[in-house]
Amino acid sequence: MASITDSPISKLEEDYLRIEKYAISLSKFIQQSDTPITIGLQGEWGTGKTSLMSLLLEQFNDKENRNEIASSWVNTWEYSMFKGAKETTPSVLKGMLDKLKDSCKERNVWTLKDDAKSTFNKAGKFLSGIANQVVANQTGINIKDAVDSNSDSYVAEIAEVKKMISQLIQDLINDEKNPVKKVVFFVDDLDRILPSDAVEVLESLKNIFDIPNCVFILAIDYDVVVKGLESKFGPKTKENEREFRSFFDKIIQVPFTMPVGAYDISSFLKNKLAELNVEVNDEEVTQITKIVGYTVGNNPRSLKRYLNTFSLIKIIVLDDDEIDDENDVNKIILFATLGIQISYPEIFRLLTQNPNYLDWNKEFGNKINVDLDEIIEEIQKVGESELTDEPWEQLIWGVCQKDPFLKVKAYNILELFNFLREIYENDKESLHEQLSSVLEFAAITNVDDDLATKQVANKAYTRTYYEGIDGYFLDNKNNKMFTNEYISLLQTIDKKIKEIYSDEISLGHILVDYSKSGGLVFNWKKKSGGKFFQIRIGKTESFLDAPKKIFLQCYVYKSSPNYQHAEILKLIPAQSLHSSWMFYCVIRNIEDFDILLKSELIDKGIECMEKNIKYSQPNLKTNKELKPIFIEDIRKIRDQNFEF
Least enclosed by CB within 10 Å: which of 36, 63, 194, 483? Predict the structure, then answer.
């Protein structure tokens, strides 16, 4: 699966956030409560209000309750499309009755008559008739021909609407053939309609919230109500805050704030990443959970958007010709960089200008029009901390003070950047190298009109190939691994291998390319999927228990499933971590390369590719599966006293 749908959960098995206990408690409260009562599930957009209501509905539909509690679920947003608030209210009311009937019939507890004279049909016709009329004021509705054409025209107060609905509920509950004792109305998506319309709908609906034997559960965002009331009370201030709260309190008897802080985010992330086919171990789940806490927070909808963005970028990385191994791009760094891009675009812009954030200093501050000396003075006034004692931290803190949102999040941002440094155990060079490699990919999904950020994003769509090996060296001139010794060695190998295969190259059978991260690559007849030989400057893998050294990493297309070849053991041959059909070895000098040439493994690789033979490790596709084989290959060779 490449993406996660933005749908609320509908059953307990999908409850990765572990909110079941709240659903059980609310369910018990509702069952034991006197009626009428109105419960408000409060939370901002995407915090899981609909999911919690779904779990409540599941509780009411279990064997113990399904016949005693009737339910009705309406999405107000659906009834508001192409309508104003005054047309929406009667549509919602009719929807509440229709859904109640459907739900009861589904459970065989609808015992009311369905003829034209029944209370239900009268109420339905009445509400259908006024759906397109005008609500005169908060206490009454002007109607014209609200019932069938044979009825007299009249003006009905909202009390008439309430009376009809109340009578219908009582008829249902009082029917001896019916076990229903209580009706629960779920009113969802109030925060998806215009704030002013949401307030008008609430004001109209509150008139029916005191119908006996009824429980009304509203999914609502208090901030939406506040915005809707601004036309009435003006912008919210400390002086008029009581008026806003009073409106809310008159409607809601029991407020329940979504327990976002108590969500099991680790469980959610682990399961959702598995759905996206992203392999993570427990340590990585812990790291990703921390990053989420520092960036988008625990909002489930924001998390799904975050994960879908991450999944898209991972696919782009895998399809990128310059990335020889998806693990060349650290998933934790990529995830963190995306979190910064989504949550803190201003800070992301700074990274695009200079990813070496641990080196940000006064000079960089001047470049971004931030005076480091002034920032230090401000920090001294508010009190220094271990998060603001380095120049780069002080610059981030200073930038955050200019924006109200970033000001609140300043220490979250600083903790995130320090956390990334901890992951790399203060290996500044490796951290900055990884940040540089992921920034151009993270910028692809950035919604920003900043020119510098757009330029970074454009790099991800541009393959950086060079006319010759010198371009590869020039673009990596600041990389400390590119020593004169290995530059000279790679130049010699480049020249030598071109001489060996000069005929095939001139005939176009072998295509040679040089890329930013790929180094020197030889392809058989096609660039995409034709690589049979690659060599580039690299170093010992960090996870190996071996001295960390620089050498040339060499990859050859497999011509055998076995690489314990006696004549090349000195080259430390092993199953490649790049793919299950590539062979890996190290080249430290020209003698090592001559050993590889004499083994004829390159020629045999070409032969296998020409015959479409692929010797891949059986049932192995991922780096996680290949890594243990790689480590074991290296161990066997080192046990024979061959060292790096």
Answer: 63
Token code pair at residue 221: 């965002």
Q: What is the spatial distance between Cα 512 and Cα 534, in angstroms, rounded to a whole number?
A: 10
Q: Are 440 and 460 in contact (CB under 8 A)?
A: yes
CA distance 191 to 495: 67
- DSSP letter, residue 368: T
| pLDDT level of residue 428 (50, 70, 90 thresholds) | confident
DSSP class per residue in 60-117:
HTSTTTTTTEEEEEEEHHHHHTT--HHHHHHHHHHHHHHHHHHHHHHTT---S--STT
269 and 251 in a single domain? The answer is no
Residue 115 in contact with residue 82, Cβ under 8 Å?
Answer: no
Look at the chain and report how many structural domains it folds into: 3
Query: Tokens at residue 620, please?
Result: 């192995």
What is the Cα–Cα distance from 202 to 478, expressed in whole angstroms?
Answer: 63
Structure tokens at 359: 């080196």
For residues 273 and 400, membership in a common domain is answered with: yes
Query: Domain for residue 141, yes or no?
Result: no
User: What are 589's two structure tokens?
Assistant: 């000098």
494-524 residue pLDDT tens: 999 999 999 999 999 998 888 766 788 888 8
Contact predicate 370/323, CB 8 Å: no
Q: What is 232-294 written as a DSSP string?
A: HH-S--TTTHHHHHHHHHHH-SEEEE--GGG--HHHHHHHHHHHTT----HHHHHHHHHHHHH
| 393: in domain | yes
Give the end-to-end CA distance of the chain in Å, rounded to a whole number: 40
| Region of poorest pLDDT, from 120-129, 190-199, 478-487, 572-581 | 120-129
pLDDT reported for residue 287: 93
**Is the pLDDT confidence value at 623 over 70?**
no
Exposure on the CB side of residue 566, measured as CA atoms within 13 A: 0
| 127 contacts 160 by C-beta, under 8 angstroms | no
Write out the residue range of the structural domain in which residue 294 sits: 265-459
Question: Same domain for 379 and 394?
Answer: yes
The three-state secondary structure class of 537 is strand
Last residue of a domain, one of 459, 480, 497: 459
Angle between helices 372-382 and 391-400 (to 10 degrees): 80
The length of the chain is 644
Contact assessment for residue 414 and residue 388, using Cβ atoms and an 8 Å cutoff: yes
Contact call for residues 156 and 143 (beta carbons, < 8 A): yes
What are the CA-CA distances from residue 270 to residues 72, 232, 282, 306, 400 (Å)? 34, 46, 9, 14, 32
Q: Which of 199, 228, 260 is the last residue of a domain?
A: 260
- Locate tokens 């960036």: which residue? 295
Question: Which of 310, 301, 228 minimizes the C-alpha distance to 47?
Answer: 301
Distance CA 382, CA 402 (A): 15
